[in-house]
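Design job #97: recover the sequence.
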């Protein structure tokens, strides 16, 4: 039997917040499905900002030497990537955006037309939490903006979505709503 690997990325500064709780649940469900899960907390990694040199387009690796090489290797190794990040101003937090910038050459090849994906055959799950209550978090673009940003990165990489789960109104919640728990539970295949 081939071993299945999942990369679980926490893109929140709150290791015990809602995004982290969503990710922890997804990790448990993945392990129940016999995945070997590798967890990365972006806020604990040494990740310089992208310099925009674009050398990675040719090398497939960022030339800045820090923890991005480890993360890039995990993107190549894992069949499923689970990304959990809160909504910050209708987008992802800066470390998540920086991750996307730094993995440019890992996930895509530049062509004359549309980028050529380098990570086909992999899947992704997006988990996000938003303080704005539903349905306003979606109507006013808060959670929709974060999902759009994350989705664009993974689709450009050639990956297929398994599920996108939004937990809105987190400011008043003590635990994950049942609806969110069910959606996360059905995400892992």
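Job complete. Output follows.
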């Amino acid at each position: 039997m081939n071993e299945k690997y999942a990369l679980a990325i926490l893109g929140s500064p709150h290791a015990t917040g809602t995004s982290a709780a969503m990710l922890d649940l997804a990790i448990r469900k993945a392990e129940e499905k016999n995945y070997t899960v590798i967890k990365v907390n972006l806020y604990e990694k040494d990740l310089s900002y992208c310099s925009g040199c674009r050398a990675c387009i040719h090398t497939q690796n960022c030339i800045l030497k820090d923890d991005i090489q480890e993360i890039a290797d995990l993107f190549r190794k894992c069949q499923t990537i689970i990304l959990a990040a809160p909504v910050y101003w209708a987008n992802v937090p800066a470390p998540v955006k920086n991750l996307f910038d730094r993995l440019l050459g890992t996930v895509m090849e530049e062509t004359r037309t549309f980028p050529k994906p380098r990570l086909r055959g992999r899947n992704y799950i997006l988990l996000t939490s938003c303080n704005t209550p539903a349905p306003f978090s979606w109507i006013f673009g808060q959670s929709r903006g974060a999902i759009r940003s994350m989705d664009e990165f993974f689709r450009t990489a050639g990956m297929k979505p398994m599920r996108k789960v939004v937990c809105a109104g987190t400011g008043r919640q003590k635990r994950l709503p049942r609806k969110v728990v069910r959606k996360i539970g059905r995400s892992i295949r």
